[in-house]
UniProtKB/TrEMBL annotation:
Coiled coil: none
InterPro entries: NAD(P)-bd_dom_sf (IPR036291), Sacchrp_dh_NADP-bd (IPR005097)
UniProt-recorded name of the protein: Saccharopine dehydrogenase NADP binding domain-containing protein
Domain of life: Bacteria
Domain Saccharopine dehydrogenase NADP binding, chain residue ranges per copy: 7-122
Amino acid sequence: MSHQRWMIYGANGYTGELVARLAAARGARPLLAGRNAVAALATELGLDHVAFDLRDPDETRRRLADVDVVAHCAGPFVATSGPMVDACLATGTHYLDVTGEHPVFEAVLARSADAEAAGVVLLTGAGFDVVPTDCLANLLHAALPDATALELAFSAPGGMSRGTATTGLALNAGGGRRRVAGVLVPTPMGTPAREVPFPSKVRQVGCVPWGDLVTAHHSTGIGDIVVYTRVPAPSLLSRLIRFAPVRALAARAIRRRPPGPSAATRAATRIEVWGEVRNAAGETRTATLTGPNAYDLTADAVHRAAEHLLAGTGGRRGGAVTPGAHTPATAFGPNFLTGLEDVTVHAPRR
């Protein structure tokens, strides 16, 4: 096989396919990969493809040996991220993922010293989870450097992919989380709640265990963090979902759904993000952003992140990004947002 500059692993999944199609439309030529079923898409797009299973570490390392960057889009990341990171460290391949699972963020960021030693960039959360929120948090922190508290809220209509919905089952079963004095603290899902002035209108939102509880803490150092979105009213199902047999039934129902939002749905829906920081004196700064559907933003962000990692020195040994483990903002700076298609940032204000 000839030398390949970057790979999309999980190109047979909903998000991976979106990344592949966008990259090909922009003239890029990623290598498509997955455990199976990537040949048809690769043939349609005129791209090379390989199939391998991450449970085979020797084969995984062999397939990554000639790859500079891998965009890891195959969940559940709590199971797949570790083997892929191990292989990337062994082969000197830069890694990025689109996880939304806070245990995965913690695990990847904990390997920063290993990545530095290997001359590798590990970038976790390179999609909607958590590019907009992480970058907005860092813009706010720059506007109020002594901030001690951060609140973030997002609205992402349009529905979820099967993979996102399946991951959400496990997260919801674990209940809510917020960060208090640097420590993750369990809290009932949706608690606390508040009204948030999004750009389009004020919405009632509740606390959720979003990735910024890890990533924004890592990138800003702020110790008190709460993330909000719309949370359905408590129901019998929401109380039963913590039991494994109920989750198994729900997962089977999810597998019967379409792979993800249609192109028409994505085109008709947009995200909104709001953020606020506060310091010990009670000073605040707020900012908002609007952008395309979360999955379209993810595809754009992943492609641009891969191109950034390939830039400068041919892609190996850090490129323009310092080797180590990163969030989007620590890798590329918070203004990475402004380079994304159809994203508008409303700058921090008092």
